[in-house]
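Margin note from the TA: students keep mixing up input and output lines. Inputs are the sequences; the output is the structure of the whole complex. Example:
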Amino acid sequence: MPQSGNPGTAQAPLLSMRGISKAFPGVCANDAVDLDLYPSELHALLGENGAGKSTLMKILYGFYRADSGSLTLNGRPIRIKSPADARQYQIGMVFQDFNLIPAFTVTENIALFLPDLKAVLHPEEIRRRIADVSARYDLQVDPDALVAQLSIGEQQKVEILKLLLSNARLLILDEPTRVLAPHEIKALYMVLDNLRKDGYAIVLITHKLKEVLESADRISVLRRGRLAGTLLRCEATEQKLIAMMFDKALTGLTRPDGNGPGTDQSPVLRLENVDTHGQGAVVRLQAVCLDIYPGEIVGIAGVSGNGQKELGDLVLGLEKCVRGRKELFGQDATHWSIGQMRRNGVAFIPESPLQMAVTPWLPVLENMALTRTRRYARWRGLWMDWKAVQADARSAFDRCGFAAPSLFVQARSLSGGNLQRMTISRELAFGPKLIVASYITRGLDVQSALAARQALLNARQAGAGILFISEDLEELFTLSDRLLVLFGGRIVGEFRPAETDFYSIGHLMTGSKASYDQRR
Amino acid sequence: MTLLALLGVISSAIYSGTSLLYTTLGEVIDERSGIVNLGLEGVLLVSAALGFAVTKQTGNPYAGILAAILAGGGMNLVLGYLVITRQANQLASGLALMFFGYGLSALIGNSYVGAKINPLPRYVLPGLSNLPLAYASLFKFDFLIILAVPMAFLVWWLLFRTRWGLGVRAVGENADTAFASGRNPQRIRYQALFVGGLLAGLGAAHLAIAYTMDWSEYMTAGRGFIAVALVIFSKWDPLRAIAGALLFSAAVAFQLLLQSAGVQVSPFLLNTIPYVLTILVLIAWGGHRNQSAPASLGRIYRGTE
Amino acid sequence: MTSGADSPPRSDFFRASLLPTITRYLATILLAFVLFGIILWLSGRNPFESYQHIFQSALGSSYGFSEVLVAMTPMLITAVAVAFPARVGLINVGVEGQLYMGALFATWGALTFPGLPAWILLPSMVGLGVLGGALWAFIPGYLKSIGLVNETITSLLLNSVAPSIVSFFVFGFWHAPRDTNITANFVPAGRLPTFFGTRIDLSFLIALGLLVVFWLFMKYTRWGLEMRAIGGNPPAARRNGIPLQLYLVVTMAIGGGVAGLAGTAQVSGYYGLLLSNFSNGLGFMGFLISWLAAGDPLGIFLIAFVVAVITTGGNLLQLTQGLPYAVINILLAFTLFIVLARPNFLSREKRS
């Protein structure tokens, strides 16, 4: 395993981790990991989902305690037992889902994390300090705004301000660019670059190779809890990094012939000028026109929070059409409930099945019956025919090519990947004509994600129309027959993947290009 | 209906509303930290019983008030132990505390039923002493009444202008975030419960020692539940609680006013006004209510979702 | 932190082993008795004597035992009134109010139609009682289902409204000639029949029947499955096509109806008239019993039995030890505290 120090630098590391191990019941998250963090350096921590990157950094921030291993700060051994300790050692962390309180203002959120906050608050003084640091690093935010009203990018700025104002010298950012559009990512890296020049040590947890190769000084790769290696940027190539991240070659997707369905058939789904009613945190969809034909995958690209969830819910019947018309196989389905949609052949594969598709403590068998309870009811509902459910479940798994899990364990004991397989089997079991697939590979390991995508392609082959919502541009480009971009509740672009590229889509995703006029 | 009668209603509302205000302020602090105390009724009863007993035994009402305050803090700590340290269900623990309060207060107060104590000294507010006697006597208040509104302001300042209050509110919104800021959510919740309990005890003290000046079982007559409703009605804001407490207490006094105007309204129906009002207000706010309640409290009210 | 919607009702794990479960219950009660005994001793009474009296009166004679069953009946019914909506995640703290409204409606029937024969009057009263309770529970259920207010707050508030309404009617229109806080006695046709010269009436059998039906319903029917799906994960159930709002309203109304049944049983069977403030926390007791039993019918039965023994025996304390009846609440509270505090000797599984 290649290990290199910083050539030509006699600098000692700011912080060293040695032999850090941490196990949770059933899984070894970190296994004897060594890591050195230097000031004025951006250190990327790479690895696939579940490699142990977040865990390692949460140990550093005091959220978890390592089972074994040691930490040294500037050469002196230290112990971190809680976030309070970490903050004392000037370590700060921005989590993936932010540690902000939506009901508080920006000032209050920052004040909460100030180490020298006085017993009686002086809001004016705090605002002044915020203004100073904001100006210095181009992190402008309105201090009196409620965090609930800020965009994700602005919230991230608040998080970084929090770190800077609490005197952190070592900054840890966990997947900071996951929900940002390409030009926002550029802006973030500029901020990080300025911080780096001022002597901050920065750790970036990410799985995005291209960003890392452009911006990181030092790259460490974790694989299944172990350190696979640390490289300097000058030594690192995409090939080397991928080899370190995975231990077997990725099996590619088998994509059947490129052309989409025949558009001479009538669409499975048609949305005509549909508006929805948005209130509060719900995005309002406007003038949405969308057709999905049998045997095609229509991808929806967009930054999270621009209406994707609402679009999926609209198609399913959970979100009402305030204006416009929705047709399913030519029938007017504008006011159908989700029960009706499902009974007419619509299926739904969500992200995080544990939260959105499954009742965790019921056994797998009962979960498989949930979408079609009427089918299995006997004596008008007084009794359920579980044998029939079992038979159907097994054939559903077969048809998707998955190994059937035990039917009698609680659903929540299945891994994320197996849960998604179970959900997909259930949803595809009766040959649905329209599938809404929403972020289906989020949080999955590589094999499970591949299996999920393959299942979609098979369904496409079988003639289903698929609405494919995803945040992964690569996935969207690979799988979609047509690609639509959603911004601010409107469709702002429609392309064939071959005709466009990431940056064009990215700019549409943030509305920075002129909006596309979607007249038909 | 004369001015005197109207002022009489207001005066009566102030007298009976003082204990409600203190109790509500205490519950506001608790709920801001994310804990609902359904056992408030029991807390009030125990504080009232102990306060009354000590006053009778020592002849010193101030000792009684102190005892009541501490009893309130103590009872809330019991809730705290169950809900914070043992992570028990808040609603069930609160109700268990209520039963405990019923029983313990009956035990303490048993030998004091029918006993009499001396009233607290009452003062006329400066500037009002020139009024004719009939009016002035309506506005002679004991020191607890006089302190009530300033206390509301103090609680507001505590919650919104101090570091401690920021921490309490943060814990009530999102304990994980508060933890990430280096705070100890459990310790903060204990503190909030204790302070809230002290205030509840103060409310009970006023009820037993200054207002009714006697003891009987179940004498708090639902004030604990009214306070919980009032906290919602005031949107967890100590300043709004002032108006709310006045409004809710006025309902009963209102009955006398109506009677003097020749309108016979059943006192029972009037008793329902505070609750019906709160329900109507909740409906009127609609889904936006969710934005006023401390976030982690909402989960309790929604039922562990 | 919260006992989440994704933890099963503890019933599954109770079922797994009956003997340890009963042992666990007994240990809890023993500890509670010890603590209460200390309180008794501190206040100058003899704990051993007190307990002896309690058990003798409750379990020593057949009449005493019958009194236990009488006390147990409303607790069983109110516990089901809480447990049924709890399966879809509804917290029905409003049983107290629903109880009163059921009693009110049933009383109206009894007082308005004194001439009807029992076989018409009684079922009508039951029907009215169920209707009253269901209506009272419909309000919070409906408001919850349209996402406006949650049912805990509304049902709690309505709890305080119902007794006032009952008092209004009793004092205002229905009061007996000489007493203003009770109504006239119901005609014999309006009273539930009793058995063996005790005060056990038909409602005991109804209560048992309810428990059995509840258990069968949840385990075998399609609706029971859908309810369990909702209770375990409401948003997922909705996405799976289960009509969430309908279930919320209907289960809450059914819960209220059952509570109304309990109220009817109280006025028709136990009292024979409507008494203002007749419920001494029966609704809350039902909530706690259901909660302690995690909504499991068998658990409800066992726990209600124990609580009934305690409250029945407690009546005697008043006479023999000069303690107000309310003191028995301390013993109940201790039992609850112990279960809530979940000390290690009680729990088999660690909860994080």
